[in-house]
Amino acid sequence: MTKNNLLKSLINFNAAETSCKNVSADYDLVINSLDCLEDCYFSIVDATGKIIFVSKDFEKIDGYKISDILGKNVLDVYKLGKQNSVHVRSIAEKKVLKNTKLRYTSASGQPVDLVMDIYPVFSGREVIGSFAISRDTSKIQALTDKVFQLQKALYNQLQRTNNNGTQFCFDDIIGSGEAMQSVINTAKKMACSESRIMILGETGTGKELFAQSIHNNSSRAKEPFIAVNCSAIPDTLLESILFGTNKGAFTGAEDKAGLFEEAKNGTLFLDELNSMSIVLQSKLLRALETNRIRRVGGNKEIPVNPRIISAMNIDPKEAIETEKLRSDFYYRLAVITLECPPLRNRKEDIITLSWFYINKYNKILGRKINEISEEVIQILENYNWPGNVRELSHCIEHAMNIVDPTDTSLLVQHLPAFLQDKILKNNILPITVPKINDYKQIMLQVEKDLLTQALKRNTGNINQTAKELNLSRQCLYYKLKRLDIDIQHEIYIE
Ligand SMILES: Nc1ncnc2c1ncn2[C@@H]1O[C@H](COP(=O)(O)OP(=O)(O)OP(=O)(O)O)[C@@H](O)[C@H]1O
């Protein structure tokens, strides 16, 4: 049976079914127009299983050349038993097989996921062949797999979050340098005690990460961990959030437990404690002294038992001196203190952290970065990271969005513009203060760094440097001489 005869039967069969008798067509045109369908091919075999026709996309999907398989039997081409060939089954059973899913390896070794609809072709009562529409669902399958993986990761994360309100434990803290290891060891010891902890450190240094890890390493791990950011909530609300409310306290107030009660025997983490008003500090102090709270509008004292971990991102001494913080309140909470060092003081961890975030975004964004250029390493290690690990993570996230999916190296042009600008123009001031206590010597070093960098920016040009610093030429010369700065030195002519 020729292809056209088979097609004619096929169309006549359908025409009979649809009572549309006068069908005439250019069969090749009809069949080839199916090629406009993406990731899909059309195939016809005769009653013996011999392949009579396949449309163009077949080569792309199956990896065979059409000319190599035409005229051959499907069972031989795919090395299948009769039961495993859907074409042969459809002919033998005289049945339409819809939505048949197949997974196999193509001639070029790629895994292929196909969904096939196979129709037997009749001439009268006799089956004279079958035709199939095969849709390549490999891409959709890969996407579905990815969605499934992401869902699973999210579910795991939520499970951890839902268990006790935390996401992190000590294993999640990155930092193999001496400074971080020492903080981790201290924090692990603190986890074994019941004393109140004050965690100090600049923004983004990992204070909450430590608070959660301590909770998860403590005997209270199965109880809730509840965090409240004192700077994010207006003072009047913060009181009712912490202590709860009793009905009638103010319009709309209901009987509601506060966070002290909700934390039960777990941990209550008071973040940015320094933002709390002095009035609320006094009320809280009373609760801390008695381990009892009174709901807003209530008159009953309720015993409470969470362990309190607090955090501050400013110097407590300064806050006490400027009367933003009550000293008795501070010392009630800072029974033991933990200091999270800023990133610029533990440069040895910067690249390890960068790799952590690169690998994270390689997975999330489907990137392939496996190298950080020397220049980028220099930049990352020399920037002073005022936003600490949070800022570094955002910087890498930015870079990973900019790299092309085929890039394997993280380069300067991928970094956020402010980092490229500042560093490439030598416009930042990583002032290297010597570890000495002599104020005069420190100031001399600071002045020297400042002038050296201004000279670098102006490629050693005295007039321009003096203008930028708003100094006279003579004054600049005098300072350079006093600080022993050699203006002929090649570093200024970069
Ligand atoms: N050592 C570290 N290892 C891994 N991730 C870290 C580390 N330090 C901080 N991070 C990450 O940096 C981000 C900021 O950390 P965290 O919120 O704990 O900082 P913080 O000091 O509490 O900041 P803030 O004072 O602004 O509340 C988080 O995503 C955290 O997971």
UniProtKB/TrEMBL annotation:
One GO MF term: ATP binding
Superkingdom of origin: Bacteria
Keywords attached to this entry: ATP-binding, Nucleotide-binding, Transcription, Transcription regulation
PAS domain: residues covered: 44-75
Segments forming domain Sigma-54 factor interaction: 173-401
Single Gene Ontology BP annotation: regulation of DNA-templated transcription
SMART domains the record matches: AAA
Pfam families recorded: AAA_lid_14, HTH_8, PAS_9, Sigma54_activat
Stored InterPro entries: AAA+_ATPase, AAA_lid_NorR, Homeodomain-like_sf, HTH_Fis, P-loop_NTPase, PAS, PAS-like_dom_sf, Sigma_54_int
Name of the protein described by the UniProt record: Sigma54 specific transcriptional regulator, Fis family
Lineage: Bacteria, Bacillati, Bacillota, Clostridia, Eubacteriales
